[in-house]
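Service request form, structural biology core

Requester: graduate student, group of Dr. S.
Request type: structure prediction, single chain
Budget code: on file
Notes: please return the result as structure tokens.

Sequence provided:
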Amino acid sequence: MGRRANMAWRLLSRAPFFAFIVLIACGCVAPKVLRVADRVEMKPQEFLNELASRDMVFVGEVHNRKSHHRVQLEIIKSLQAVGHQVVIGVEMFRKDNQEALDKWVAGELSESEFREVYHRNWGVSWSQYRDIFLFAREKRVPMVGLNISRSVIRQVVKGGFASLTPEQLSELPPGIECKVDDTYEDFIKEALGEHAGEMSFRNFCEAQMVWDNAMANNAIEYLKNNPRKSLVILAGSGHSWKRGIPAQVKRLSKYSYTVVLPESDDVKIETINQSDADYFITGWFF
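Core staff response, request fulfilled:
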């Protein structure tokens, strides 16, 4: 067991209860954390100890599923409660809007002012993420914008990776290519859906790779500049699964990570495997 894991276990041994369990009192179905490798239900302390030993923790979501954001917040709270220097990486904000995130956490923007910036970055209702953002401000938990401009993604969908300018390429890591396994290819084709005849599969695939690589690169850059932080990354499950951002983190760095996916219509215990995630969460009105 490494130094970080030993430290986490000592802290956990003094923790009276895991913050997850508090939510059982609300009348929800009791949450369960299953280890994907063997479908074994994890004890709360064992699960948190595993998360605390990693540089990055990916927690997937369906953007408009409030229960998924509850999962994300409880993981953040639990890591923060046992003494980890938690940082929240968010798909919901572009990197070029980092100043607004910093001002929010520092208490220099009102909620109404910040909501205006939020809606320029993200189309999902503020109410879905409000509790997470309020917690970050209350506890002064840093937040990091990981996303890239949607105009770049749209450009690649239309003209492919080759359409990017030298300036745009300078924002991205090297080696981006549409190289995916059959499962990821099926995911991309499903995402294309009825537009499959209108768009190039390769362009759409390259756009997805640009998206994943940009967010991975921004997360890596943050940790390089801020060592000994625990980066909890909140992003859609299509980016958070192991074939998404984590695969590019692995390609570009030596940082360790764990992937946690909550149950959804597309993420089910019957079909999920170790190539998708490390842990599967079910229970909160899923």
